[in-house]
Amino acid sequence: MTFPEFIVFLISIVAGVIGQFFLKSGAAKLGAVTASNFFSHVVKIVTIPELIFGLAFYGGAAVLYILLLTRINLSVLAPAVALQYVFSVLMGHFIFGEAVPLIRIFGIAFIICGVVMLISKN
Question: DSSP of 50-77, one letter per residue?
């Protein structure tokens, strides 16, 4: 992965994480989905700005991912997107107050090591 490709990759990751933030924030406004309110919740998705922003950021991340696929092997790029998991766990903890047990911290460390190994040159 060249440096410009790496920058586009990071922008894609950040856009995906921002999308997750907005989707989580919008989902909190939406409330819990049950069998009786499923259809009304689906309709309400288009009325909650955070959900629209979240979908837009996810869409932007997907476009960048597609562009990267024209230059980078799928066997490298797809697993490297796992960095979103790392940032999602950090965001869940620091923004939404979610607990991060020690075993999850080890999992994050393994993901980071794996991504570094994937994107490094042979």
Answer: HHHHHHHHHHHHHHHHHHHHTTS-HHHH
